Amino acid sequence: MAFSMNLTIEQIDALAPDGNSLKAAQKLTQPDRWTGLGQSGDTIWGDCKGSASTPYLVQAELSEPAFKCTCPSRKFPCKHALGLLLLAVHQPEAVPQSEAPSRVADWLKSRAERAERAAKRGEAPPDPEAQAKRAARRHNRVLDGVEQLNLWLCDLVRSGLASLQAKGYGTWDTMAARMVDAQAPGLARQLRLMAAIPASGEGWTGRLLERISLLHLLLEAYQRIDTLPEATQADVRAAVGIPIRQEDILLGQGTIDQWIVLGRRIEEQDDLKTQRTWLWGADSAQPALILDFAYRGQTLDTSLIPGTAFEGEVVFYPSAAPLRAAVKSRQAIQTYSGTPPGSISIGDGVAAYANTIASNPWLELYPLAFQQVLPLPTDAGWVVADADRQSVLPLANTFSATWEMFAISGGYPIGLTSEWNGSTLLPLGLWADGRYVAL
Amino acid sequence: MSVWQEIHDAALMGIERRTFEAPAAGGKAGALIDQLRGAEPEATLLGAAVILTMQRRTGMTPAHVALPECVPAEAEAQPLCSHRSAQHLARMLRGEFAEVLPEWLDAAGRAGKCVPAELLPELLSKGDRRQALQAKITPVIGRRGRWLAAFKSEWHYAVQSEEEIDNWETLSHPARVLYLEQLRASDPAAARALLEATWASERAEDRAQLLAALKVGLGMADEPFLEAALDDRSRKVWAVAVDLLARLPASGLAQRMIERVRPLVTLKQSLLQRQIDVSLPEAVDEQTVRDGVIQAKPSGRQIGERQWWLTQMIQLVPPDWWCDEFKLSPKELVALIAKSEWEALLAEGWIAAVARYPSLEWCEALLSAFPTQHAFLAELSPDLRETCLLSVLPELVKHESALGWFQLIAGQKALHHLDLGRLVLQHIQEYIKANTKKARKDYWEVMALVDDLGMVLPPELSQEAKNLLISKDEPRSQADYQVKQLIAILDFRRIMLQELAK
């Protein structure tokens, strides 16, 4: 029986990756170039004599379609596969019905298995047993790492912090790598941050001791994690670096509000870009942090534009002081021109921060937004002051747009949004005369 | 010693060789620390440290610092430039079309607009790095800019108070020069009187610049004062006086110079031809030196001493006198000296003279004959300059090398005459066409000048330039890049000027 080909010349044409491939394929339609031709069902195969000493083994499966060829070409489908198809269309009698050789049968079998696995993943609900097994495995590895790190920290305390200045980054790097192996990237990150402190100038010993003590607290907490309240368990896991799938978060219930986009900051480390977008819920008067990641050439989602607002539902990640969130659904963004969001006084803002870290001691960054502050140059550096010039907070000395901010303020109070790390402010944007300017 | 200090010192030295006991502390922190007793010493230390750390962080209150007085800026009196104009400025400050910045600043200043606050720091810093821009920057920074400039010493050049000019004697020197020039435009006599009054007490350097202000509204009424200035101690003042007097054909200096030159340069007419006859002066006396002829030859110049004297004399004679004396037009005179041994000497003299005493006929004649010596064009009024170029260019293109006339145009200040611009564009197009198949010599030097022309040609012609120079049908020529640059600059200038004029 002749091979019932559904493919037409036009369709083969459409499959070709470029015009040259088709032209080249047309030269390969002489049957005398081919040996071992055969077909069965939707599958077709043959060996094509090429420039190499052994012929290329070509096969095609036509329902997807899928192709396989042993030639070195990177094009897909290659000219041999196209040639095979053309030959079958032009001269079907040259391609007799026969049993598939083992290479074709194996290929078909592995394709079927892969398809089955993919289908299972899509259809079946996540297997709680398998998930629990994975989680348990991970927990054990992390626990190992935690115990190791704890011993290491205690060693450090025994020999004294003064001994660190002589050592280089090496000690920290090795330990950080071990934490990555233990599937605890959050701990690795902490170690990297601490590695830079001995070289950070006066007062480094105090700063380092603070961080070491907080890390020690985290390690102790992880070792007793089941005894902690659930919300704190989530914070401990997040600080250690155990990921939660965003898809799972989005299944939960969120807060519906008008969300103002306070600002956005992108940081890059080792090929990985991290984007922090800070939101403020107008009615609920609470902040939210949207985290976005891009590796190497990937692009970040830039649809949340600072200075705009949107009506939408935002779901918070579990935490004793919920901050990180994901946008579940939203309407189109609009320019925001209401009163600048944020605290009335610097004291209020700092108090909100204090409350938050009291619940989650490992929080690194908190958004501080103020309705009216004055940026001012002082002998000790730039600060922002309350409108009544009573309290001040220092600006980070890495902030480069101080003069632009000052020029826009003209000596008058402005609305300001920023990131607070416990000691310095890094501005994100300002509101002046109803206009938002990203800094 | 505070509890934290105790813990900190222990951690610093290490607790291997010393025992560590949980320190006694008061309050909630103390109670928590007490709970640590009995644990391993390292855990006790780190536990106490974290308790105190959290206490400090959660109890943190903002600092109270003595703040400097900061008077806020006044409301702006000038209108802000449009958002689009601000974007143009931002691009230029970042480096794109940076050469157009002075033109933008001038146009914004004329339109009375000021720049938005967020661009002030960069603009002010630019003025600190490039002094020549400062005079253009100060009119467009507005009150906000002057307020801001007071905060940083590099920007202090922009902090000018709009002082009322009530007393001439108390003004700063640059301000007085400016004031004098402005007064000369409306009341030359009053300005001169002002200068004469304080003349004796001025410093030498200041005197030269103040005297130069008399160039505005120069007239015979100034002659006595200028004549007296010829005896000034300062060489600079003397030079200015000579230059100004040479611009007044009826002045004593000009008349005296004419009498000196009359016997030296004569016209010989025979039946067949006319020629110029030159005899060099034997010597220069004191009067001649006073009248502007420098005795010593400038070092490095290949010229005979007596020739040096003669050419200087010719530079001080009003050009039209030659026409009257020899009854010939400028064109005829220039043609007359061609190929003569005295050509260079007379040309140098006439070219310098014509810069002082502009006349269209003379300019055309000299430019046609000596296109490379076009520096004198810069002294002329824009109108005169462009009229001259318009009439001279067609002939020039035929006889001169392309590099020659390209350099002439590229060296000009921005042109306004559209017809002149169109003529130049046409010639560019013809040149490119002629060189598409095979580039003649000098081609790359010429093409390198093409994007300079973007700053010279009138920006209104940007669309015409596009139509003329970019053709989709013709094959890509090697000139593509430069032509694209030229059109890009013209377009940008046109758009930014249009936006500022709104």
Task: Walk me through what this model shows.
Chain A has 439 residues and is of the alpha+beta class. Chain A is 37% helix and 26% strand. Chain A has twelve helices and 16 strands. A six-stranded antiparallel β-sheet of chain A has the order 13-12-11-14-15-16. Chain B is mainly alpha-helical. Chain B is 57% helix and 2% strand. Chain B has helices spanning 3-13, 27-34, 41-58, 83-94, 101-110, 120-129, 134-137, 142-149, 173-186, 188-198, 204-212, 223-229, 235-245, 252-261, 286-290, 305-315, 319-326, 330-337, 343-356, 360-369, 382-399, 402-410, 418-434, 443-450, 453-456, 462-469, 480-501, and strands spanning 265-269, 274-278. Chain B has a two-stranded antiparallel sheet. Chain B starts with a helix and ends with a helix. The model of chain B has no long low-confidence stretch (mean pLDDT 85). At the A-B interface, helix 5, helix 8, helix 11, strand 11 and strand 13 of A face helix 1, helix 3 and helix 8 of B.
Strand/helix succession of chain B: HHHHHHHHHHHHHHEEHHHHHHHHHHHHH
| Sheet with the most strands, sense and barrel status of chain B | 2 strands, antiparallel
Radius of gyration from the alpha-carbon trace of chain A, in angstroms: 31 Å
The total count of strands of chain B amounts to: 2
Strand content of chain A: 25-35%
Structural class of chain A: alpha+beta
Let me know the largest β-sheet of chain A.
Answer: 6 strands, antiparallel
How much beta of chain B, percentage-wise?
Answer: under 5%
Largest interface, counted with CB-CB under 8 A?
A: A-B, 50 and 43 residues
